[in-house]
Amino acid sequence: MKKSLFNGKGRTLLGLLAFIAIGGGLIISTVINERNLYKTEILIIFGCFFVISLLDHFRRVIKKDDKFIFNKRSIYFLICSFIGVTLTWFINHEMGYGAIIANGLVGVMAAIFLPNDLAGITYTSSFMGMSSFAVIPSITAAAIGSLIVGIILLTTVEIYAGIGGKGGTTAALSTIITNAIIKFFI
Known about the structure:
This protein is mainly alpha-helical. Helix content is 76%, strand content 0%. The N terminus is likely disordered.
């Protein structure tokens, strides 16, 4: 059987490395830019816990047998991702309610009308819709970003499962990738 980077453990490790890069980059840039010594020490301690938890999570991910299956549920994930990003972006920018209210409305509607896992996907995706015009300049860019969020969520389901912070990290990673794609083509 031919092994690929995008099958099984390779895909899981690639997703984990992307999350590590986002989290680690945020911690490192904050430490570099912080002028207060006490805050810097706290951030370094936080970074140590981050590294320890990543190593433990890496060990657990390596042990899992990981198979990606694209099915009907995957299509629901992509649809919910699209709705989460584009609806939040629309409420935020076109209706003018702002990012927090837009995210809250989409999150509450998702929690009321969707099953738990689809509501979580929709809410996580809506974080990307909170981006400013400078980052996500149009509804078309938001739609492209929704596809990226959906793909990242589908391919990294087991990474950070049950651990807080995955939604924001996924949104940050997706926004960075979408912004890079937009800048490449514009």
